[in-house]
Amino acid sequence: MVGMKARSGADQSNPVDILVIGGGVNGAGIARDAAGRGLSVILCEKGDLAGATSSASTKLFHGGLRYLEYFEFGLVREALIEREILLKSMPHIAFPMRFVLPIDEDLRFPEHGSSFARLMSIVPFLGGRRPSWLTRTGLFLYDHLGGRENLPPTETLDLRSHPAGRPLKSLYTQAFEYSDGWVDDARLVVLCARDAANRGATILTRTRLEKADREGDLWRAELRDTETDTSQTIYARALVNAAGPWVEDVLHQKLRQISNEGVRLVRGSHIVTRRLFDHDQPYFFQLADGRIIFAIPFQTDFTLIGTTEREHQGDPGNAVCTDEEKHYLVNAINNFFRKQIGIDDIVWTYSGVRPLYDDHADDATSATRDYVLTVSDEVEKAPLLNVFGGKITTFRHLSEEAMHRLRHWFPEMASKWTADARLPGGDFEFGGARKLTARLREKFSFLDGDWAMRLIRAYGTDAFEMLDGAGSASDLGQSFGATLTAREVDWMVNREWARTADDILWRRSKLGLRIDDVGRAALSGYLHGLGTV
User: Fold this and answer.
1) What proportion of the chain, given as a percentage, has pLDDT over 70?
2) How many beta carbons lie within 10 A of that of residue 421, not counting itself?
C-alpha cells in the first residue's frame, strides 16, 4: 500500500523535514505543496483521509456570496480567485454550476412593518431576506472581485418560462443566475495525498499522534498505528498541526503548548433526498431567519440540501444531523418547492464540524471563515505551524502560505508551484469530462454511459489505467452492485489508502446510496480477504 511505512525520520540522524498532523484538506494540501518543493514529508492521520470535516462539506468551490454581508471582501476575493484555479486543476472532480437564486421582494418582518424596517434590512447582521437590488449589488461584486475568466456572469431569469421555475411555488417569478463550482470534497483530499505520495511524501492513515516534544533542534513525535497498536518514533525539523476540529486538542494536550488562539466548533448538517427536480441547476435559497441553504443535484438521482449552523459541543467525531436539524431543513425547503417533502423522504444525512477561527463573533453565522496561521519555534529551531479555521475553497492558497511561513527554516525549498499543477487524473481540458467519457466508452465498450461518467468523475484519465486490459465487465472481478467491482476496490486499497467498506462507499465514492446490505456485506468480506479489515 502506498506510503504505509515511513521512509525517513526514524532517528535523529535522519529526520524528516516536516511532520503534518491531520489528513483533512489542509493537511493533505500542505503535505502535497511541501513534497513538491523537494522537502521530505510524513503525514499522519488518526482515521481515514477526509474522515471528518473534509468529507462533510456542501461540496462547493465558492467565494462565499453571503460573506460579503460581513465585509469579508478579502476572503471572498481570495476564494473567487482560487475557484478559477481549482476548477482548471481538477476537471474530473470539480466543475462549474449555474446557481438559481429566486427573488423574493416580501421581506417578511414579523415585528416591524414600517418602511424604516425595510431600510434597516440593508444593514448586515439584522436577518431577513435581502431585497433584490441589494442581492444584485452583491452579485455584481461577486462577479468582479475575483477576476472571473472562465465562468459566465450573473443573469436574470424569468422563472415563468425557465425550467428552474417549474418546481418552485408560483410566487417566485424571477431569479438571479450566477456561477460557482462543485467539488467532490473527499476525493479532493485523497488526490492531494496521492500527489504528495507521488512526490515522495509518506502518508500514514490510522496513525495517531500520541505526543511530541522538542529535542534540541528537532521534534520528537510518538505515533501509534491504531490497527496494529504498534508505535514508532519520528524526528522532524518542523511540525504542522492541521488537525481541523482537533487543532486545539493537539496543541494543548499532545504538544503541551500554551496559546491564546483557538477555534469555534460549528456543526453543519445536510440531508439527502430522492431527486426533487428534473434539471441540473442548483438553488440558493434565502430564509426568513437570515440564513441561506442550497438544494443541489447530487449523484444523478438525489438532491443534497444544507446546511445548518449550530454551535457544537463534545467530540467533533460524534457529530450527527439531529432531528431538530432535519426538521429545520425539511421545513426550509418546503417554503420554496411545490412538492412538499417530509422526514421520511430523507435517504441519508451527514454532519461535519467546522473549526472556525475564534474571532469572538456573537453567533456562528457571523464568525469568520478566514484562516489564521501561527508559527512558533525554540530559538529559531523546530518550528510549529498551527492551522486555525479555513474553508475548502482556499486550501491551496492556505498551503502555499503555510510554506511561505516556513521558508525561514527551509531556505533551500523550491518556489511555489501548485497554481499550475493538475491533480492525478486531471490532465485534460477544462470542461472536457464528457469528451473523455466518450473516449473511455470507445476503448472499453462494455461500459454504459452512466458507468463511464462515474469513473471519469472520480478518476479522470486514471480510469484508463484502472481498466487496462479489460475486455468485458467480468474481467473486472467480483461485482458488489452499482457498477462497483473488485478492480476498482483494489485501486482504492492500493492507491488511495482505503481500508473499510465505509472508506469506499462514503468517502472514495458515494455508492453507499445505491449498494444494498448484501453488496455491502460482500464488500466487507472481500476487504477481509485482502487483510485490510
Assistant:
1) 91
2) 15
Q: Which of 376, 358, 355 lies closest to 367 in space, CA to CA? A: 358
CA atoms of 65 and 87, how far apart (whole Å): 18
For residue range 287-343, what is the model confidence (pLDDT) as tens digits? 988 889 999 999 999 999 999 999 999 999 999 999 999 999 999 999 999 999 999
Q: Is 341 helix (H, G, I), strand (E, B) or coil?
A: coil
Domain segments of the chain: what residues?
16-53+187-262+368-420, 90-182, 271-357, 433-530
* Residues paired with residue 384 on neighbouring β-strands, in sequence order: 239, 376
The CA distance from 375 to 524, in Å, is: 43
Instruction: For the domain made up of 433-530, give the CATH fold.
Output: Helicase, Ruva Protein; domain 3 (1.10.8)
Half-sphere exposure of residue 329: CA atoms within 13 angstroms, side-chain side: 29
- Contacting residues for 420 by C-beta, under 8 A, at least 6 apart: none
CA–CA dist 199, 426 (Å, integer): 16
Whole-angstrom CA distances from 246 to 21, 310, 365, 389 are: 10, 17, 21, 11
Closest listed residue to residue 56, CA positions, set 392, 497, 379, 327? 392
Residue 302, strand partner residues: 274, 298
CATH class of 271-357: alpha beta
* Cell 466518450 belongs to residue: 438
